[in-house]
Amino acid sequence: MAGNQGADDLLNEIEALGAKLTLARAAIGSRIIGQDRVVDLSLAAMLAGGHALLMGLPGLGKTRLVETLATVMGLTGNRIQFTPDLMPSDILGSEVLETAADGSRAFRYIEGPIFSQLLMADEINRASPRTQSALLQAMQEREVTVAGQTRKLPAPFHVLATQNPIEQEGTYPLPEAQLDRFLVKIDVEYPDRETERAIVLATTGSVDAEARAIFDAETLIAAQSVVRRMPVGDTVVDLILDLVRACRPDNPDAPEAVKAHVAWGPGPRAAQALMLLVRAQALLGGRLAPDVSDVVRLARPVLEHRMALSFAARAEGVLLEEVIDEVAARVTQSERAA
């Protein structure tokens, strides 16, 4: 009886949260036109309690999206414009020596912009690797260590970083360890003609659409708890494991495309990310549990930044997304055959 009551309570929570998410998506969509997949992946990352990396050329609305998300989700936000001369202390904060009225001197810690619930790391790949690495501890452990003292960050804590492609002049590739801490990589692409027309008309008039708060910090934390309690069937769990493991070139059972073209593959954190994101994706779709299609849909955003092609594969023009699609199709087919 208690089990049935718990299931009913979870069902009611999922339905209530689904209605709230519908309002949030509408509020975001009033300012972010024609980027439904980008919006859904960003929301899924936040519902899963993780961080997102928005990849795209300048002028595609990445910064506008992050600013809108902060408002709609009701979070305190800070923005850091990453530049080549940015220092770690500009992110984490630092201690300063102050002199009191009586002449005594003492150090006082001044918090950096990282002490926020939603940190926007704008053009993160324009800062040096040393500065980029200042985010590592914060993204994984939700705390920072400065001058030997560990300080907790606000809850919830999310990093939404924007990145221009590394082919752009004056950028640094993100370290692999930091890339792995992003739950998902979201490609922001050029809009089609009709969408671009709608964007031009909506953003060049005298009035710009304003976002309004739908969530707050407490509601988002509660939503993240619901996501973690959503049931996941054995078929979906097995597919996640098979997919992640098949993308590792040292796995004897990996497809030939992986063994021939992939230099290194995803670790266990990729499977954890998929488990959380398929639940969030199901919730955004108004469903009570994820299915196989969620795993396939999220394969690229979760795996692409956790893998690398070999030098020979890059020279041959092999595309990593095509390798991932091939592996996902093969694993899904094997799962269905079993």
From TrEMBL:
Domain AAA+ ATPase: 48-192
InterPro entries per UniProt: AAA+_ATPase (IPR003593), ATPase_AAA-3 (IPR011703), CbbQ/NirQ/NorQ/GpvN (IPR050764), ChlI/MoxR_AAA_lid (IPR041628), P-loop_NTPase (IPR027417)
CDD domains, sorted: AAA
Name of the molecule in the record: MoxR-like ATPase
Keywords, ordered alphabetically: ATP-binding, Nucleotide-binding
UniProt keyword annotation of ATP-binding present: yes
Gene Ontology molecular-function annotations: ATP binding; ATP hydrolysis activity
Similarity remark: Belongs to the MoxR family.
SMART domains assigned: AAA
Domain of life: Bacteria
Pfam family, one: AAA_lid_2
